[in-house]
Amino acid sequence: MTTFHGHMNGQGLRVALVCSRFNDLIVGRLEAGARDALVRHGVDETQIDTVWVPGALEIPPAAKALAATGRYDAIVALGAVMRGATYHFEVVCNQSAAGLTRLALETDVVVTNGILTVDTMDQALERAGSKAGNKGADVALAAIETINAIRAATA
Ligand code: INI
Question: Which residues contact residue 95 at a Cβ distance below 8 angstroms, ignoring those fewer than 6 apart?
Fold first, then answer.
């Protein structure tokens, strides 16, 4: 039996961060956290592109187009969906996650999901660089680990 792990060296990787402008106070922090984590793990800053789209629902189609260019090893989705008074919250949460999951299965590019789904701005701030860490950094590192695990197991 062989066990494979993904190492955390991001040297040579090309990454797209697909970010939504809705709640950009939060998403800007997720983007900065993701970028910082990638660079600290060896990804060349010039190999990280950021693409801004209007809202979380626009992230999967933009990610799909970017994956199709063949320019990236990973797409990191970053957004913040905050509960409002209506059912729209559920639609945006569920459909953005479903779109990313589907894309991840349909493309060879690794796709990770850093779209926060929270009830309050406090919960979002906690996950965007304060007491619960930075989910942008977490999902950027998940991308590096997944790429390297797949490469190790399929080499
Ligand atoms: N988009 C978000 O990224 N976050 C939200 O909290 C949000 N809410 O609550 O409505 C949101 N809606 C917009 C949606 O993602 C699309 O941009 C819009 O429906 C146009 O397709």
Answer: 57, 60
| 93 alpha carbon – ligand 1 mean position (Å) | 9
Flag whether 24 is in a domain.
yes
Structurally, the chain folds into a number of domains equal to 1
Say what the pTM is. 0.97
| Residue 64 structure tokens | 């799909």
CA quadruple 118, 67, 24, 28: dihedral sign = positive
CATH number of residue 115's parent domain: 3.40.50.960
| Known catalytic membership, residue 5 | no
Task: Render the burial of 72-96: b for 16+ CB within 10 Å, e for the rest.
Answer: bbbbbbbbbbbeeeeeebeebbeeb
- Residue nearest atom 11 of ligand 1, based on CA coordinates: 55
93-123 residue pLDDT tens: 999 999 999 999 999 999 999 999 999 999 9
Is residue 85 pLDDT above 90, yes or no? no
**Which atom of ligand 1 is nearest the CA belonging to 20?**
3
> Which residue's CA is minimally distant from atom 21 of ligand 1?
57
